[in-house]
Amino acid sequence: MPKPDSGQSLRQAAAVQLEQAKIEAHLTLCRKLQNDLVPTLSPPANDYLVWEPRVIKATDGQISGPRYFGEPDDELDGNWHELLEPSNTGVPAEWMHDLGREKEGVQLPEGTYFGVMAVFHNLHCLKHVQRALHPEHYGLDLLEGNEVTEHWDHLNHCLYQLKHAVMCQGDTTLLTMYWHDRMYQPVANWSSPHECINWDRFMDWVVPNSVDVHRDGVLVHPKYGALMKDGEPTALWYKSFRESGFGKLGNEFLHNRPNNTDVQP
């Protein structure tokens, strides 16, 4: 058996170390670029976050409070409206400046900037997943041509967004298992407390800082013009809804705005 070439082994080891150094240098550069492009800032609402333990009951027979999923009706749609009504936020100008986005931002007449907190976008996505499960009720079965593709693109975007949100927040609450008399497999004990924000306290910031973007003169595209005129949506807004996968639902959304204020990009 030939003896190992010590010189070759050293060269291989050096090559591995060099490759590792290149990878680490690349990752360091990526982290630096990310930090340069996306400054780490504390959102204005963070001062209103109060964390508390809470048991989440989400199994049949234990769900209490407003209903958001299941067979759709006026009550369910009203619950979504109430939850999402304050979605659109007026972002303080100084925060946009610190973020370096004041030049690209959509400035509102009162001087703040149009924004939506991710939690409301995620809820908005859950609402559209619920609607996708009941296409006949919401007219989604009437979509035609490119509207169908855009609808599924929008829905897939929402599902990926929710997946990333769940992994980003990384709830490490442990669900222990136990043997149930009527089940062959172990069953989860859902009584483990999660660390949750106090939603009512959070809303103490959200509601006063929410903005009605459906008023005339609030959203005016610098190239295409106003999205609202005389209290009604313009043809431009209808067009944007149809091309964003809402199809004929665009008419319902915009003619029934009191129940559809969660209009987001």
Overall description:
With 265 residues, the protein is an alpha+beta fold. It has one domain. Helices cover 42% and strands 11% of the residues. The protein has helices at residues 6-37, 74-84, 93-99, 118-132, 146-169, 199-206, 235-242, 249-255, and strands at residues 51-54, 88-91, 113-116, 177-178, 187-188, 194-197, 220-221, 225-226, 228-229, 232-233. A two-stranded antiparallel sheet has the order 1-6. Strands 2-3 form a two-stranded antiparallel ribbon. The relative contact order is 0.14. The model is unreliable at 247-261 (pLDDT under 50). InterPro entries: UstYa-like. Pfam families: UstYa. One of its GO terms (biological process) is mycotoxin biosynthetic process.
Keywords:
265 residues, alpha+beta, two-stranded antiparallel ribbon, 8 helices
Output the helix-strand order. HEHEHEHHEEEHEEEEHH
Q: If you compute it from the alpha carbons, what radius of gyration comes out, rounded to the nearest whole angstrom?
A: 25 Å
Strand content: 5-15%
Residues in helix, %: 40-55%
What is the makeup of the main sheet? Answer: 2 strands, antiparallel
Pfam families: UstYa
Protein name: Peptidase family M28 family
Organism: Teratosphaeria destructans
Family: Belongs to the ustYa family.
